[in-house]
Design goal:
The longest helix is centred in the N-terminal third of the chain and has 30 residues. 41% of the residues lie in helices and 18% in strands. The protein is of the alpha+beta class.
């Protein structure tokens, strides 16, 4: 899964979806109107002040130079170490709708780009002639003090890019080595041209496109300055997010990447027209679209050629190199709705005693208008387990789950508890709402482990904390989860929205009144994941909201309901609410002792822990919330193995206690 997450950043996922009508390009005059919406929604910040100004300017710079490879320290210091007088002056200009400070910054960025491009010409010649290259493994924490340091930072980027491609293709020949640096330059200039206001052909952009880019960057920095989870998105970014949330899109199902030999197939979506054709393979080169050669087209132009196809059928031409022979072939494909089954969940099971232990890995909380949802998929998985045997134990794996729809989190948690509050939400003006499960019986109530990691966030934390609060399951995994306990209002899922953004409007709490903000969900039994050595979590992000708590709601107050609905709930809902199960908490000391003993006497697990300690020492200077693939240790899923062992212990303890007359029941 980690490798899969990293590939998401390396490859361009091309769904070849239908041409959509995008919102009108942004204008500078749109900025105040959008900011007013942010302030109206945001839980805390309601107007511009010097704090927002300082954050915004800093983020505007970092948006351009996140790797600190373009600017010298002396160039950005006046903006990053801003005096109160200067911050006040910028604030006054912004209040007058004067964004000239950002335009000035963009001029500095253009100068930095021109300098970097000149440096890379010199660096590339050196690297092509040299037999090897060395790069610092960790990105710098500060901006470069001088030009020599700036040269080294650009060189580091190029060497790391070369090393990545060297591990995947033969680069022994000098001309192929040169192609790697040519590809790096193409990719770098693709981003840099947007700051130079040049098209992919190197021609000046028109005024409207320039204004759109400037407005987009300013709004992105303004949004992020309010808190770490408030964001503004381009229409293209919103489309990708919408696809991820709904797990469905219309297209042909090819995943493209740009390599040194051209644009190639990086993957095929399972069940898509491309995969079902049986003719296309990974690493095939895309050389033609509907008879038009693509050799001279840029990557963006190829993407545009594919995305602009309004008709249902498209013919792609490919070149395949096999046994020193090049074969050219064409494949006609017709777009159709594709469901991303592999991105939804995965299931497996193993026999134990007279039954089976089911394992469900859920990667997000999704829902779409065609009836696909995480709740339905989990119910189907549990039903499938029961068809295979007596389901006596279950593991819900949320280690790679970073969130999704809040409503789905409530429904998934509701599969394991009966009537009761799952989430309490509190908004900017103090109003409190309760999200409830109103199904009077659970779908599964046997031994349950929720497997978590530092990467489990947002909706996955709601489910884990709620099940822990009610005592129906045990949390096994990293010491704590990510720690995102805030609620965002978003326009991303509205295809017809005028602009796309998400803004933090509130905090959520589970039935105990606990917030997962910053602290996350604390594991009942600590079994470290591959993420354990890393500094991952909300507390490492910039501008996170502080944590707090509310009154517990094990006895639902029903205060957010109208009088008629309240009376109905008092009769048909309150008598059947889920009581707290204390059974597993009482058994926890024995379960923890058993788990600790197994890990202490498992040679593989001890080796893993030693390697993770070594990784922790090497990652002291790695920026928080950064994962470097080269530092990953261990391939065997020892954490899942121990989670299964914990479930087995739970099954045995329950059987022994039932034989002795002790039943697992709820209590007030």
């Amino acid at each position: 899964m980690l490798r899969k997450a990293i590939l998401l950043f390396l490859f361009c996922f091309l769904w070849i979806g239908p041409a959509t009508t995008l919102p009108q390009p942004l204008k500078i005059d749109d900025i105040p109107r959008v900011m007013e919406r942010f302030f109206a929604f945001h839980i805390e910040t309601k107007e511009l002040d010097t704090t927002v100004v300082r954050r915004c300017v800093k983020l505007y710079i970092e948006q351009f130079d996140s790797e600190k490879a373009y600017f010298l320290d002396r160039e950005v210091a006046p903006y990053l170490n801003m005096s109160e007088q200067k911050a006040t002056a910028i604030l006054h200009r912004l209040q007058q709708y004067d964004y000239s400070d950002f335009f000035t910054l963009n001029g500095l960025m253009q100068d930095a780009v021109v300098r970097a491009q000149a440096l890379r010409v010199y660096i590339a010649k050196q690297l092509i002639q040299s037999r090897d290259g060395n790069a610092t493994s960790l990105p710098p924490a500060q901006y470069a003090q001088g030009e020599d340091e700036l040269v080294q930072r650009q060189k580091n980027r190029m060497v790391r890019f070369y090393q990545f491609h060297q591990s995947r293709t033969n680069l022994d020949a000098p001309d192929r080595k040169a192609k790697v640096y040519e590809l790096f330059e193409k990719r770098a200039q693709r981003i840099e041209n947007n700051y130079l206001f040049l098209t992919a052909d190197g021609l000046p952009m028109d005024r409207g496109r320039i204004e759109n880019l400037l407005s987009l960057r300013i709004l992105k920095s303004f949004a992020k300055s309010l808190d770490t989870h408030t964001s503004f998105f381009s229409p293209e970014e919103a489309y990708e997010m919408r696809t991820s949330l709904e797990k469905q899109f219309e297209g042909v199902g090819v995943v493209l990447s740009e390599g040194i030999d051209g644009v190639m197939i990086a993957d095929l979506i399972k069940g898509s027209p491309a995969e079902l054709s049986g003719q296309i393979k990974v690493n095939d080169l895309l050389v033609e679209i509907d008879g038009v050669p693509t050799a001279q087209a840029s990557f963006e132009e190829i993407l545009d050629m594919l995305k602009k196809k309004d008709k249902g059928e498209i013919t792609l031409g490919f070149k395949r190199v096999e046994a020193m022979n090049e074969n050219f072939f064409r494949v006609p494909l017709r777009k159709r709705p594709i469901v991303m089954n592999e991105e939804r969940l995965q299931t497996s099971y193993e026999q134990f005693g007279d039954g089976i232990i089911g394992k469900i890995s859920l990667y997000s909380f999704y829902e779409n208008s065609d009836g696909i949802s995480s709740e339905k998929d989990i119910k189907d998985a549990i039903r499938s387990f029961r068809e295979k045997g007596n389901l006596i134990g279950l593991i819900l794996d949320l280690r790679e789950n970073s969130g999704g729809f809040l409503s789905q989190a409530v429904k998934v948690a509701g599969l394991f508890v009966s009537n009761g509050v799952i989430v309490i939400s509190k908004y900017g003006k103090g109003e409190v709402h309760y999200l409830r499960n109103i199904v009077s019986r659970s779908y599964y109530n046997g031994p349950l482990v929720v497997l978590t990691s530092k990467m489990s966030a947002s909706a996955s934390e709601i489910v884990a904390q709620a099940l822990q609060d009610y005592g129906v399951g045990l949390i096994v995994g990293d010491q704590r989860t990510f720690g995102k306990g805030s609620i965002q209002y978003q326009t991303v899922t509205d295809e017809k929205a005028e602009v796309f953004f998400k803004v933090t409007v509130g905090r959520y709490y589970t039935v105990s009144g606990k917030s997962t903000q910053i602290d996350g969900v604390i594991a009942d039994i600590v079994v470290p994941s591959s993420y354990a050595p890393y500094k991952i979590g909300e507390k490492y992000l910039e501008y996170p909201l502080p944590p707090d708590h509310v009154e517990a709601a094990y006895i639902d107050p029903l205060t957010d309901l109208d009088e008629k609905t309240r009376r109905l709930f008092q009769m048909r809902y309150l008598p059947f609410t889920q009581r707290v199960v204390t059974y597993w908490k009482r058994m926890l000391p024995a379960l923890k002792q058993n788990s600790a003993y197994r890990m202490a006497h498992d040679a593989n697990f001890q080796l893993l822990l030693k390697k993770q300690d070594a990784v922790s020492a090497r990652l002291n200077t790695l920026p928080p919330n950064t994962i470097d693939e080269q530092f990953q240790v261990g391939k065997e899923d020892l954490q899942m193995g121990e989670a299964v062992n914990v479930v087995k212990d739970m099954i045995l303890i329950e059987a022994q206690n039932e034989a002795g007359g002790e039943l697992r029941t709820g209590s007030d």
